[in-house]
From TrEMBL:
Residues 621-639 have a biased composition (Basic and acidic residues). Belongs to the adaptor complexes large subunit family. This is AP-2 complex subunit alpha. GO terms for biological process: clathrin-dependent endocytosis; intracellular protein transport. Residues 26-594 form the Clathrin/coatomer adaptor adaptin-like N-terminal domain. One of its GO terms (molecular function) is clathrin adaptor activity. InterPro entries: Adaptor_Complx_Large_Subunit (IPR050840), AP2_complex_asu (IPR017104), ARM-like (IPR011989), ARM-type_fold (IPR016024), Clathrin/coatomer_adapt-like_N (IPR002553), Clathrin_app_Ig-like_sf (IPR013041). It is a peripheral membrane protein.
């Protein structure tokens, strides 16, 4: 009873923190408690119970994200005490509060090594658990041999041996020399004869790790042993009743045996082949769908591991196994239960890649098409994958036709993937190239927003490289843009095709271009081509207008008498536009008019045929569906850079990066960043509003490819890589810039079918924090979470509370802290990486984004009298203290200034708004005072545009604020 009352102090502390009305109240309570704990630790007498209680409070405080930089000696004292309660609290606190660099780590390792070697199983288990939580090279070097000795010891309790096997696996991944092959091969195999199934299962986990690292070369005796073990459970039903899960005998044990078998090729020895084939056949035969969800989950785990083995064997294995697997999965495709049907579709997709199975899979085409129309998007994705895998020249027109028909009503979340796969199938299996052009036109008409540049670029390449196709393509593109509702992507394609091949429309088709089609007789004059294109000019984006100007220049050269009087004023009007690319093209084409016909002909001649190379669409598909020859189930940790031991503890701030280190910062390189700095704000386009590069790839800082997706790593367990797709960049940009409104503290940053990333931001003075929520939308765990947010000398960053994994349906949050040290103008890159999917087919995700931290994030409003503002305004004239820009948008200037955090000093509808603010930093001057930069704003309407002028003592602050305000106008910040 007394102890329960004493624990009330910890309970009250947690209750009071949860009841805090705001951050300030919580911080005040934490500061008070930490001060009290410090005082207690320095007191002359402290009971063991009080010591445990205060250490628990320290742990809870640290887990909330507060820095706890004292008390590690008390944690060490608890570990060194002989009692179980003390050691339990001590080891738990050590894993939360200590890092490999802590001064107390050597003493803790000595205590841990002693407890592992002790005779008390309870203490051994505590120390082993703590060592696994730490992991890392230092732990492996110091206690790895001790753990190995415990594992192979003679009289070791079952619980201790199981933990020792799993801990040794953890350390083996960091230091493979702990289990040199072949020295320990026979000993590991012999341990599969241990009496309890739990011990066998733990040893199997360790063996799987060794196989993934070293292969099967020295493990030949293991294969028959595994088959015997599997037969004993699956065929002979020799199972401990305690390990029967919903009438499925030892499911996890069998799954691990099957995973180990997958590392071996199909055996040539008949004495091994027959029992292996029998046990796999038994698994395929004995997996019915029942009403028990738990039974189905367990049996399906075993079934799909068996199917993985059959796929691994390929044509080397018996054809009967492949046929039986396809037959079994085909039944799943026709079951109403969506989870079961999902498994069937996914399994058939993988089986369809094996020779001789496609015809058998195609028998289910009707059921597959039905699944394509399901409400559940995951089923639609798997059906799409399966249709793609089974498509061939004999059924391409039917499948592509079905996909195009479904595209009209398909959910936007799957449209981009459908468009990519339709384009690939149309190119790969086209009965003729005219059919291919027709398919591309349907994609432009039904899903133009989802037709990426890669797709229409590839279509242009095919048309350019096939002269008989050029006139037909020109006719079709002219017909596509005749309507005023043509999609912008169709306008871009038409601009290129008509600019290059529009001259072919002057006369009917002849020679090999003529096929007797009605379109062969179509003729179109140059003026009609121009009218069809130009009706879209005012509504398309600047990059599309650039293509149109190029098409106009070619049309003007071909039809000078017909179009010169129309096109010359257009070029002249664009010699003074703000967009640099448009202006440059207009000036060049206008000056070209004065050149000789010979020079104009050479400059404007048709583009040559493209070099024949692998389709970029096929390359993109390989990046997302590449199958590895073998699977490393365990991943790899960088040597000397393990997750926990060689970096600060999980709850302590980690500068700029959390989890495993990669080979360099992810994000734009120094050159791209500097070029963004050098650009004049007034000359930047709305699409490049913060100097992040002129295209979507530059905006997302894709160092790996144009879509921000990292290439597949060298680790053989990675079978696919995903990043931010081009179709999502607009939504990502909109979400990012919505945080320019200081009143908006939460929004989603990115979402796909696997994960949703949400952000909650808070800024006060020069300090800020971002709570990044990782929502797992998939059916399995997200593993190996890595967050990279590199700080700079301008903005320091630290990361806390990064989870090791995110289970399905959960949404943990980590925290990134920002400290502004000096002015800056560039956005801060943030990369979120993780693995998803089963270990046998791991997908690597790497999303290169930007943190919602702007120059305006560190502004504080300043109430400034009008006279003082005018005086300071005059004193800050001239570059770089003053900068101007205009945006082709009209919004309420006062509302925009308030939204970004400035004080509006004066405002009127006619003259706009004047504002003032202070840019805060944590840097100090020689007097110890924090440095701040005063900022003045003038935002006023000018006709159909808005003029922005910012003045401050620091050029970087000025430029960053101008860019931020431009972005605020472009993205509707401050709108009602």
């Amino acid at each position: 009873m007394a102890q329960s009352l004493m624990m009330r102090g910890l309970t009250n502390y947690i209750t009071e923190l949860r009841a805090s009305k705001n951050r300030e109240d919580e911080e005040a309570r934490v500061d008070k408690e930490l001060g009290n704990i410090r005082a207690k630790f320095t007191a002359a007498r402290l009971s063991e119970y009080d010591r445990r209680k205060y250490v628990w409070k320290m742990m809870y405080t640290s887990m909330l994200g507060y820095e706890v930089d004292f008390g590690l000696s008390e944690v060490l004292n608890l570990i060194q005490f002989p009692g179980f309660k003390d050691k339990c609290v001590g080891y738990t606190a050590a894993t939360v509060l200590m890092s490999a660099a802590s001064d107390t780590m050597p003493a803790m390792l000595r205590a841990m090594r002693g407890d592992i070697a002790a005779a008390d199983p309870m203490l051994q288990c505590l120390a082993l658990t703590a060592s696994a939580n730490f992991g890392g090279s230092k732990i492996a070097d110091d206690i790895g041999d001790t753990v190995r000795s415990v594992l192979f010891g003679a009289m070791v309790p079952t619980a201790v041996r199981k933990k020792a096997a799993l801990v040794l696996l953890r350390l083996f991944r960091v230091k493979p020399s702990l289990l040199p092959v072949p020295d320990y091969t026979s000993r590991l195999i012999d341990m599969l004869e241990l009496p309890t199934l739990g011990e066998k299962q733990a040893v199997l986990c360790l063996i799987l790790g060794v196989l993934a690292k070293n292969g099967v070369e020295h493990f030949a005796p293991l294969l028959p042993r595994l088959i015997t073990m599997l037969n004993a459970v699956a065929v002979d039903s020799h199972a401990d009743p305690h390990y029967v899960y919903h009438k499925v005998a030892c499911p996890w044990y069998r799954v691990r045996i099957l995973r180990a078998l997958r590392h071996f090729p199909f055996p040539t020895d008949k004495t091994v082949q027959v029992p292996l084939t029998d046990v796999l056949t038994d698994v395929l035969r004995g997996t019915p769908v029942t009403k028990s969800l738990n039974h189905n989950n367990a049996s399906h785990a075993i079934l799909f591991e068996a199917i993985n083995i059959i796929i691994r064997y390929g044509t080397n294995g018996p054809a009967s196994l492949r046929e039986r697997a396809v037959e079994h999965l085909s039944k799943y495709v026709n079951i109403r239960e969506p989870n079961v049907r999902y498994l069937g579709l996914e399994g058939l997709t993988r089986m369809a890649s094996l020779p001789g199975t496609r015809e058998q899979v195609l028998r289910q085409q009707k059921a597959i098409l039905i699944s394509l129309k399901e409400r559940d998007i995951s089923l639609r994705r798997r059906a799409l994958d399966l249709l793609f895998a089974t498509c061939g020249r004999d059924n391409a027109e039917e499948i592509v036709g079905e996909l195009v028909t479904h595209l009209i009503t398909a959910d936007s979340a799957i449209r981009s993937e459908m468009v990519l796969k339709i384009a690939i199938l149309a190119e790969r299996f086209a009965p003729n190239l005219r059919w291919y052009v027709d398919v591309v036109l349907k994609l432009l008409a039904h899903a133009g927003d989802h037709v990426s540049d890669d797709i229409w670029h590839r279509a242009v390449q095919i048309v350019t490289n096939n002269p008989p196709l050029q006139r037909y393509a020109a006719v079709k593109m002219f017909q596509a843009v005749e309507t005023s509702m043509a999609h912008e992507t169709a306008v871009k394609v038409a601009a290129y095709i008509l600019g290059e091949f529009g001259f072919l429309l002057q006369e009917p088709a002849a020679g090999e271009s003529a096929t007797g089609d009605a379109d062969d007789a179509t003729t179109v004059s140059g003026s009609k081509q121009f009218v069809a294109l130009h009706q879209h000019f005012d509504r398309v984006a600047p990059e599309s207008r650039v293509l149109l100007l190029s098409a106009y220049a070619k049309l003007q050269h071909l039809y000078e008498a017909e179009l010169d009087h129309v096109l010359t004023p257009i070029f002249e009007a664009h010699t003074t536009v703000l967009n640099e690319e448009l202006q440059q093209r207009a000036v060049e084409y206008l000056s070209l008019k004065a050149q000789s016909d010979d020079l104009k002909g050479r400059v404007l001649e048709a583009m040559p045929a493209f070099e024949e190379r692998e389709s970029v669409l096929e390359a993109r598909l390989k990046d997302t569906s590449k199958t590895a020859k073998d699977v490393d189930e365990w991943g790899k940790e960088a040597d000397g850079a393990a997750v926990a031991a060689d970096s600060p503890a999980a709850s302590a701030p980690t500068p700029g990066r959390a989890k495993r280190a990669k080979g360099g910062a992810v994000g734009p390189d120094d050159e791209s960043s500097s070029s963004g700095n050098e650009a004049e704000p007034a000359a930047q386009e709305d699409e490049d509003i913060l100097g992040l590069g002129g295209d979507d790839a530059g905006f997302m800082g894709g160092a790996d490819d144009a879509f921000g997706a990292a290439a597949a790593g060298d680790s053989p367990n990675i079978v696919a890589s995903r990043g931010v797709p081009s179709g999502s960049l607009g939504a990502v940009r909109t979400a990012l810039f919505s945080f320019l409104d200081r009143g908006r503290t939460r929004a989603g940053l990115f979402a796909d079918d696997t994960v949703q990333l949400g952000a909650v931001v808070e800024f006060r003075g020069a300090l800020g924090r971002l709570r990044l929520h990782i929502v797992n939308k998939s059916d399995g765990d997200l593993r190996n979470i890595e967050i990279d947010c590199p700080g700079t000398d301008a903005v320091a960053t630290s990361i806390v509370d990064v989870p090791d994994r995110v289970p399905a349906g959960e949404r943990p949050a980590l925290e990134i802290r920002f400290k502004c040290m000096r002015p800056f103008a560039d956005l801060i890159p943030i990369t979120v990486s993780f693995h998803s999917g089963p270990m046998s087919a791991t997908v690597e995700h790497s999303y290169a984004l930007r943190a919602p931290v702007f120059t305006t994030s560190f502004l504080e409003a300043v109430a400034l009298p009008m006279d003082a503002l005018k005086a300071r305004w005059g004193a800050l004239a001239g570059e770089p203290k003053a900068a101007r820009a205009t945006v082709p948008v009209l919004r309420d200037p006062a509302a925009v200034l308030r939204a970004i955090g400035a004080e509006v000093v004066q405002a009127s509808p006619e003259h706009g708004a004047l504002g003032a603010a202070t840019f805060r930093t944590e840097a100090t001057n020689p007097d110890g005072k924090k440095i701040s930069v005063g900022c003045l704003f003038k935002v006023s309407p000018q006709g159909s545009e808005t003029a922005i002028e910012v003045r401050s003592q620091h050029g970087l602050v000025t430029r960053g604020l101008v860019n931020s305000i431009k972005a605020a106008f472009a993205h509707g910040v401050g709108s009602a």
